[in-house]
Amino acid sequence: MSKQVRKSQLLALSKTTAAVVLALAMVIYPQEVLSSAYQGILMWGKYVLPALLPFFILSELLMGAGFVHLLGVVLEPIMRPVFRLPGCAGFVVAMGFTSGPPIGAILTAKLRKENLLSRVEAERLLTFTNNASPGFMLGAVAAGMFGNPGLGLALAFSNYLANLLLGIAMRYYKPTPLETAQPTSNVSLGRKAFRAMYYAQRKDARPLGQLIGDSVRNSINTILLVGGFILFFSVMLRLLSILGVTALIAKVLAVLLAPLKLDSSLFSAISSGLFEMTLGTKLASEASGPIMQKIPLVSALMAWSGISVHAQVASFTSGTDIRLTPFVIGRLAQTGLSAVLIIVLLNFTPSITVFSALGAGLTPWKTEILVLALAVFSTAALCFGVGILFGLLRRGFASLSKFSRPPC
Questions:
Q1: Which pLDDT score, from 0 to 100, does residue 389 have?
Q2: pLDDT tops 50 at residue 365
Q3: Number of C-beta neighbours around residue 236 at 10 A
Q4: Which of 272, 196, 195 minimizes the C-alpha distance to 238?
Q5: How confident is the model at residue 102 (pLDDT cuts 50, 70, 90)?
Q6: d(Cα 30, Cα 55) in Å, to the nearest integer?
Q7: Residues 295 and 266: beta-carbon distance below 8 Å
Q8: CA–CA gap between residue 369 and residue 4 (Å, rounded)
Q9: Is the pTM of the predicted complex or chain greater than 0.85?
Q10: Are 135 and 109 in contact, with CB atoms under 8 Å apart?
Q11: What is the dihedral of CA 44, 50, 53, 54, to 10 degrees?
């Protein structure tokens, strides 16, 4: 028997064993299953359904109306030099930054299925478009869990900046010369964008009523699938807690993370946050550890997103050839980067009363608008700045190569 076959059989056995253990635990603890399932449905109905369903419907309508193709032509001069992605990826970046996971994975998979992205481009895009939404950071975490709306500014800054830096770094993931080639044309940018939208609408050919109906139907199916993931992981986490698995993971993490000198009350939040982001951030906010440790931990957990979100991403990309290894590596990289960034920010403003002052008098939705405006402005400024830098470097290398040529 080959080593590969033996490994495959061991993996199949472990999957079956885990499923049987969870099934038996559900039978033994039915009351705990019901209460945890109720909490999962409550969280889905209170936070996820109103936050994501409008964005799902809107994204379906915009894609059917050809807006993504129009935006792709307009954003091509920015997205190519900065992220080494086509312009249509800018739509996924905007939706992912404003609505949170798993909409980035859903839109990336759709663009891949329509061949608007190559496999490598889709893998690049997937790594930095599934971050926590502003509503979750500002409303649920900052205002709700910590009672400090101004803290959302620091959390949003660290996560958005880490995401942008990760996206820029991913441009070096399997680059090809054809990706940086910019086709020249005498046709104006506006006319090319309108043509792209027009031909996309003709190709779709659905009447407006059918487009709206399909958008609502597909979006409801998607949000129900997301709710199923939340419910399942809520039940699974409760059963793992009863079986002592999360406590065991917390002990292992305490040994592995001993050099960080974290408070012992935070390890249960980390072990839960590995699976589900919302529960992990809630436990971290309720822990008795110092606030200067809890805030970087919450930022890191939001960057990691939890295995629940990873499973959703895997589900929505399962019908494509997109590989998940770059996505998981990107989540790990952003976890560390966002924690470091917010630690640096807190060191510049050691007292969190500064964030309280920034958030004083602002309701959560006003703070969310402020953060979104800052995110859009900083993203545009960073993209234009990096694009100009790459353009200058390209011209400089071209000039050097010209001078280095031998005379005729």
A1: 55
A2: no
A3: 22
A4: 272
A5: confident
A6: 35
A7: no
A8: 53
A9: no
A10: no
A11: -170
pLDDT band, residue 404 (cuts 50/70/90): very low
Which residue, 148, 178, 199, is CA-closest to 357?
148
331: pLDDT strictly greater than 90: yes
Burial 139-156, CB ≥16 within 10 A → b, else e: bbbbbbbbebbbbbbbbb
Alpha-carbon distance of 94 to 134, in angstroms, equals 12
- Report the C-alpha gap between 103 and 156 in whole angstroms: 18
Residue whose entry in the numeric block shows the structure tokens 């959390």: 155
Transcribe 263-327 into DSSP letters: -GGGHHHHHHHTT-HHHHHHHHHHSSS-HHHHHHHHHHHHHH--HHHHHHHHHHTTTS---SHHH
- Rounded Cα distance, 139 and 3, in Å: 50
Q: 351 versus 17: which is more confidently predicted?
A: 17
In the structure encoding, which two tokens stand for residue 398, read together?
A: 């071209």
Which pLDDT value is given to residue 184? 52
Q: For 367-381, what is the mean pLDDT? A: 50
Determine the average pLDDT of the residues in 360-376: 50
Upstream peptide bond of 102 is cis (omega within 30 degrees of 0): yes
pLDDT digit string (tens) for 73-96? Answer: 787 888 888 888 888 888 888 888
Distance CA 157, CA 164 (A): 11
Distance in angstroms (rounded) separating the CA atoms of residues 36 and 249: 20
How many other β-carbons are positioned within 10 Å of the β-carbon of residue 98?
16
Kindly state the tokens that stand for 109: 């998979």
Instruction: Map tokens 């935006």 to a residue.
Output: 71
Tell me the mean pLDDT in the region 340-367. Answer: 61
Query: Please, what is the angle between helix 67-83 and helix 364-404, to 10°?
Result: 60
Q: What whole-number percentage of the chain has pLDDT above 70?
A: 82
First vs last C-alpha separation in the chain: 66
Helix spans in 189-290 (H):
189-204, 208-242, 245-256, 267-273, 277-286
Distance CA 294, CA 24 (A): 35
